[in-house]
Amino acid sequence: MKTSVKFLAVLLLISNFSFGQDISKRIDSIIKDNYQKNPKVGISVGFIKNDDEYFTDYGNLNSESKIQINKNSLFEIASITKILTSNLIAQAVIENKIKVDDYIDNYLPKEYVLQKNLQNKIKISDLASHQSGLPDIDFGKLIELNPQQPVSNVTEKSLADIINNCSELKDYGKYRYSTIGYTLLGQIVEKVYNKNYDQIIREKIIVPLKMKNTFTKDFNVKNITTAHNPEGGIQEFFKWNVTAPAGLIKSNAADMVTYLKAVLNSKTSIGKAAIITEKIFYKDQKREMGLGTNIVTDDKNTIYMKSGDSMGQSSIICYNRAKNWGIIILLDQRNSKMRQDLLNTIYDTVLK
């Protein structure tokens, strides 16, 4: 009997390995086909299934380089940063430092003063699920001022002006994607931990997970990819400033798979926090939202995802907790359609 049990265990291990290998080959085939059709767009993909990691990459670091993109090549993960910020919020909830239904009033920097009719109305969860009703940063105007570094003109003073001059929450309780909301969440985290956002994300996520190729302020490394706008022109990586919690982390496929591992492990502090972010805080006919996380459900699956677009790169992260898989897709060009089409194809033909 013992021999039979051992045999079955080995057989199961071989079966799982073969299954994983089959998935990785099929994903690689999809990515390779896309690259052959779009050879100017570099791609890095990381996939995890039951703790087994798989990576596939196509393209070079830049047009002059012969160095190929790999799992350690640096990209802007852009708004995927928001799920890291919401994870920090959820960790603070677990530590009893805040509650998701706390009003934001007492957690904002002292320079921010909500007008009387807006006081004790906006909850932390409203910011994190994009339904606060607050006006957002005017990105179009910022791009006109500085096409390479539009967020450079966003300061604590300019943010305070937006908040302090707001007299009405025109669409409170309705979904409207918000950069300012996640900037404020970063400042709330700073308030409860009495540290700056850079210190907090390092102490709570980057260092514990040994994400050695995930960067905040200093990302001048040899394996950095070149960013390209939709027309193919070279675009600078965003420099660190007050908007960091909304989208300024730089990382790679290897480190983001490490993050996915922690998210899918409900015994880790990050995994426990992720479960809080997966609760539904907003729902309408078009979408369901957790804390920074888009929730998509079909007959057999519930998946959690977040996309990101900087001025010159696009990315998307997605995972299925019940089936224990996760995927990260990184592109060295701003191309939201391509990254969404890639995920849809992989999901529909391989993962579903």
UniProtKB/TrEMBL annotation:
<keyword id="KW-0732">Signal</keyword>
<dbReference type="InterPro" id="IPR001466">
    <property type="entry name" value="Beta-lactam-related"/>
</dbReference>
<dbReference type="InterPro" id="IPR051478">
    <property type="entry name" value="Beta-lactamase-like_AB/R"/>
</dbReference>
<dbReference type="InterPro" id="IPR012338">
    <property type="entry name" value="Beta-lactam/transpept-like"/>
</dbReference>
<dbReference type="GO" id="GO:0016787">
    <property type="term" value="F:hydrolase activity"/>
</dbReference>
<feature type="domain" description="Beta-lactamase-related">
    <location>
        <begin position="31"/>
        <end position="338"/>
    </location>
</feature>
<comment type="similarity">
    <text>Belongs to the beta-lactamase family.</text>
</comment>
<protein>
    <submittedName>
        <fullName>CubicO group peptidase, beta-lactamase class C family</fullName>
    </submittedName>
</protein>
<feature type="signal peptide">
    <location>
        <begin position="1"/>
        <end position="20"/>
    </location>
</feature>
<keyword id="KW-0378">Hydrolase</keyword>
<dbReference type="Pfam" id="PF00144">
    <property type="entry name" value="Beta-lactamase"/>
</dbReference>
